[in-house]
Amino acid sequence: MFRRVCAAVLAVLFLTAAGACSGSRLFGKQYEYEEDLTLGLDGRATVVVNASIASLVALRGLNLPIDRAARLPDDEIRALFTSPVTQVTRVSRPWTRKGRRFIQVRVRVSEIGRLSEAAPFGWSTYSLKQEGGQHVFSQVVGASALKPGTLQNYGWDGSELVAFRVHLPSKITFHNSRDVETNETKSPDRGNILGWEQHLSDRLDGRPVEIVVKMESQSILHRTLFLFAGAFTAAVIVLILLVWWTMRKGKDQPTATA
């Protein structure tokens, strides 16, 4: 009995680790295509793309082999995502889900407004500007690269999800993120993260995704460091006052006589 319990625990740990390493989501929603953007107030950003090879071919028109037996050389994938404005920092090993191969690509860009100059992100326009004492980020995802009559049978049923997620650097004052099923406004996830989802069928049809976020022009990290520095300074002042008060009290005590 004890061995069976141990085996079950090890199996769960193995599956969890495999899911984390592969980039897939063992728990929660799974996405056929996902852009995960971490944004800085200075316009620098990191984009992580988790996507099936089939979606990269159909949605972005990238020249990649669909056959699961075909090789996926890192240098070819890097070349597709590399441009004068982007730098590829990581290409993962492919993993398989529902018979389709997936891959993760991590990209850096020094100016978010120019990210669309890289072919894989050319379906979007990006903007980050100051407006009314705030920073405003916007992204509009336009038509996919799918050409009529070219869609192959990749095992999709159209209900698969596509996601665009943004990690924000400061307090959010406005956003238009909504639940894909209920159309109700969504709250930011832990870590100041907002997501916009769309069914794969709508993304293939090119129905636009409009992303708008307004946020304070002071980063959460800057505010945290400021508060920490203030608290530390206050603690030092209190300590100095205590030392001064103790020394003064000692001087005021009458000297004992023999």
Topology:
Layout lengths: L1 H21 L8 E9 L5 E8 H8 L13 H8 L4 E6 L3 E3 L2 E10 L14 E8 L2 E8 L19 E7 L2 E6 L17 E7 H6 L3 E11 H33 L6
Parallel strand pairs: 1-8
Antiparallel strand pairs: 1-2, 2-5, 3-5, 4-5, 6-7, 7-11, 8-10, 9-11
Brief sketch in words of this structure:
With 258 residues, this protein is α+β, with helices and mostly antiparallel strands. The chain has helices at 2-22, 53-60, 74-81, 200-205, 220-252; strands at residues 31-39, 45-52, 86-91, 95-97, 100-109, 124-131, 134-141, 161-167, 170-175, 193-199, 209-219. β1 (31-39) and β2 form a beta hairpin.
- Write the H/E string, N to C: HEEHHEEEEEEEEHEH
Give average pLDDT, whole number.
Answer: 84
Q: Fraction of residues in helices?
A: 25-40%
What class, by secondary structure content? alpha+beta
Mind describing the biggest β-sheet? 7 strands, mixed
Query: In percent, how much strand structure appears in the residues?
Result: 25-35%
Task: Give the C-alpha Rg.
Answer: 26 Å
Coarse shape: elongated
Uncertain ranges: 5-26, 220-230
Q: Helix count?
A: 5
Distance between the termini: 82 Å
**How many runs of DSSP E, i.e. beta strands?**
11
